[in-house]
Amino acid sequence: MSQETEENKQIGEQTPPLNDAGRPQRPPRRWLGLVIALIVVAALLVSGVVSRVKARSTLKAETAQVALTAVSVVSPKPAAPAQEIILPGNVQPFITAPIYARTNGYLKKWSVAVIETPEVDQQLEQARSNLATAKANLELATVTKSRYLGLLKSNAVSQQDVDNAVGTYNANKAIVQADQAAVDQYTALVSFEKVYAPFDGIITARNTDIGDLINSGSGGGVKTDLFHIAQPGKLRVYVNVPEEYSRGVKAGMTADLSLAEFPGRTFRGTLVRSADAITVTTRTLLVEIDVDNPTGTLLTGSYAEVHLAVPAQSSTLLLPVNTLLFRSEGLRVGVVKDGKVALTAVTPGHDFGNQIEIVVGLKPDDQVVVNPPDSLITGQQVQIVQATLPGDIK
Fold first, then answer.
1. Chain segment 229-248, per-residue pLDDT in tens
2. Which of 12, 49, 190, 269 has its CA at a distance of 20 to 30 angstroms from the CA of residue 171?
3. CA–CA separation, 299 and 233 (whole Å)
4. What is the pTM of this model?
């Protein structure tokens, strides 16, 4: 009996408690596990939905971003305070002149340009003889006049005889003066047998030879310029400056000359004067630049490249030429503002090859589209993929 009771106690301890319906009650731990499982499943479902929504939003944003036109932009660069322009120049001597003969004859030698003038020499001798005759007649007339004036005081001669003597004296005196002028004239012509240059210099051209017949430069026939003489110690360089740069060139500014025969070497000159007028045919301003040449290094007639630093307008900006849009309404550039393009009209200035000067239409902080597509319009949204600083413009 005690053994059965003990077994029933053990069996009673292993039997779960019964509920009101007489069924055994489940332990609370199983309900807790089920709730946790449901929560995990719900969390997984929510996480999946959220990730999908987020991925869809990201994809939509990326698609919209990719649909925007990608552009590179650059900011205008302020123009340099001075622009160097290179212009062709003609090197000329400071003083040059053709040398003509003042008398007719044959060139005897050209080392000192001596002309043989036998006709002039003969005319000079004849003039001297006439002068001598006239002087002799004047002396006789002088003596006769003095004698008659003395006799008139004693009434030994008539007044008529005295007047005749005085008239003869005056006539002979005038003849002497005329003959003296003729002698002086032929003496001067004989002195012209030797040709003298009006200034020190070098002979740059000889247009005659020994034995050639020389015609006087003052005559009415064909003139023969014997030589050309130049003074090379100081040179004039003439330059035609385009009209667009004419306001920037002033007297006193310096210029550098470079010549092909002197590679790597420059010669300094000074702009001394200009024509103060634009040539209608070429639309250029003629200026003169003086260059010292004491050793004669530079040769007259040379071709030179003249470098001038012309002051630039302070308000101008520089842009790469690949930013320009050529439209029927005029020149335009695309300026990006708040992610949108605004086609802006600009006024160009000087063209420097890979850059162009913009006079009106831009500000230094504008962002200008580089290589804009022809389809670009105002208001179009764009995406900036690269921005270039003003100092990076080359």
1. 898 899 999 999 999 888 88
2. 190
3. 10
4. 0.56
